[in-house]
Amino acid sequence: MTNPTEQRIRDVIASNDIVLFMKGVPAAPQCGFSGAVVQILSGLGVPFAGVNVLADPEIRDGIKAFSNWPTIPQLYVKGEFLGGCDIVREMFNAGELTALLNDKGIAVAGV
Question: Residue 109's pLDDT is what?
């Protein structure tokens, strides 16, 4: 990963409370896993930034190196990497995602 790519990733994560690196955009996810995370976040009523990794190969490869996580989507909350679809789904189903968002000062509307 090039330094400028890493800096772009850091800037996006620092500029948004919740960032989802995904395939597609929130209004039109391009894979089921990305769509599942979008559905969870939308259901919770939390604003989030979606970064379409399909539109930028450097970001697509760079985010995997940045997080040391091999798959997309990847969810970040207040700068902290949470994981991919399976982890987010498990956290949501256990009530842990809502608790984490509340702990980080992010209002959850959909619960």
Answer: 86
Please name the amino acid found at residue 99. Answer: A
Tokens representing 31? 């894979």
Alpha helices in 16-109 (DSSP H): 32-44, 57-67, 85-93, 96-103
Tokens of 36: 């599942």
Q: How far apart are CA 63 and CA 86, in angstroms?
A: 18
Whether the predicted pLDDT of 80 surpasses 60: yes
Mean pLDDT of 45-49: 97
* 110 pLDDT tier (thresholds 50, 70, 90): low
The Cα 111–Cα 95 span in angstroms is: 10
* CA dist list (Å): 41 to 35, 66, 86, 97, 104: 10, 23, 14, 10, 15
- Burial track 21-54 (b if 16+ CB lie within 10 A, e otherwise): bbbbbbeebeeebbbbbbebbeebebebebbbbe
